[in-house]
Write a structure and sequence with these properties.
With 121 residues, the protein is mainly alpha-helical. It contains eight helices and no strands. The chain is 74% helix and 0% strand. α2 crosses α5. The longest helix has 30 residues. The radius of gyration is 20 Å and the shape is elongated.
Length: 121
């Protein structure tokens, strides 16, 4: 579990870090949201179903965002176009769409037979 993401969720939802960690642990164990809300209230601090779903959704989104940031930085770096400012902008992005917008000019274009022929002369 990513501590940075957990601290972001606690700030956004105004719940304790212990509650977020326990919800994520219960979800990892395969428990369903209704089960957690009804039968694991002592572990979650009496969070309701909606709050548990928000924690799950937010953690999944933030984890995916962090993974995509790493991937975009790696792809741009492989092309030798990564600058410190660009890396800072990618890491500062808070939405997946922002990361994709930054990556768009560096994205490899689709290879067609025509582009391959032009490349080969």
């Amino acid at each position: 579990m990513n501590k940075i993401i957990i601290s972001q969720i606690t700030k956004e939802l105004k719940i304790s870090e212990k509650q977020v960690i326990s919800v994520l642990n219960l979800l990892e164990e395969g428990n369903t949201v209704p089960f957690i809300a009804r039968y694991r209230k002592e572990a979650t601090g009496s969070l309701d179903e909606d709050q548990i779903r928000v924690v799950e959704k937010e953690y999944t989104y933030q984890a995916g965002l962090a993974k995509r940031k790493e991937e975009v930085i790696r792809l741009i770096d492989e092309r030798g176009m990564l600058t410190p400012d660009l890396e800072k902008d990618i890491n500062a992005a808070i939405k997946l769409q922002q990361v994709e917008d930054i990556y768009l000019p560096f994205k490899e274009k689709r290879k067609t037979k025509a582009t391959e022929a032009i490349k080969n002369g």
